[in-house]
Amino acid sequence: SAPGRFADYFVICGLDTETGLEPDELSGENFEQTPLRRTFKSKVLARYPENVEWNPFDQDAVGMLCMPKGLAFKTQADSREPQFHSFIITREDGSRTFGFSLTFFEEVTSKQICSAMQTLYHMHNAEYDILHAPPTNDKDSCSSTGDCNGTSVSKLQRFNSYDISRDTLYVSKCICLITPMSFMKACKKVLEQLHQAVTSPQPPPLPLESYIYNILYEVPLPPAGRSLKFSGVYGPIICQRPSTSELPLFDFPVKEVFELLGVENVVQLFTCALLEFQILLYSQ
């Protein structure tokens, strides 16, 4: 049986420099996109601990749900703000485990990956030249529009482009907590403080491994009807578990639902739920 720990796994997902750039088959064919707008396959790079008896690690599910859009590449010209999301893994017996993921961007230090991205751009621009070359007998229309093939290609190369001699390449990476209960706010704070410690010029008060060990082995699940306060890298983190006589744990801001759907749609959804209609939510 589970010993009642706050978190079961700490997971790192991202770019495997040994396997290089692999197209993400789950995202479909996207070769018409510029290489910086394509998605590439991410891998589970590390997990701690290796395995726990009461919650076997599902590498494929965790890897896909941590980075559902695969790896993303950007340059210094793009916005690189960290993004947080949560997910649920439901097993065949109906039991659930919860995941909380913080995705951020870090500089690519592998020269092979940078060279591979540059090669993809050379191939992409060559294909563009072939597909959009003007007809040989249409020189007049080219000169009249003032937008010959050379001009359009140069515009394309400047837009969403990558030049290994000029640009800094960044790739998405993810840190994740796998937990038995859905303490979303607490997990988000843990991950954000860990990321802050990695990106801060000043080292954290203690080695990062000690904080990860603490959250995995020393922080217990709070008993029903009790609160729990434990130390993060830069400050305390608090979570509360409802008692058996209260509504179930729901640690997500309902405000976001109203912001995304609007009041009228939320009321309509609530009415449909009361009338036991089937409800399908579709999202990108």
UniProtKB/TrEMBL annotation:
UniProt keyword list: Guanine-nucleotide releasing factor
GO MF annotations, alphabetized: guanyl-nucleotide exchange factor activity; small GTPase binding
Protein origin, superkingdom: Eukaryota
Name the record gives this protein: DEN5A protein
Annotated GO CC locations: cytosol; trans-Golgi network
Alphabetical list of InterPro entries matching this protein: cDENN_dom, DEN5A/B, DENN_C, Tripartite_DENN, uDENN_dom
Keyword Transmembrane helix: no
One example of a Gene Ontology biological process annotation: retrograde transport, endosome to Golgi
Keyword Membrane in annotation: no
Domain named UDENN: residues: 24-284
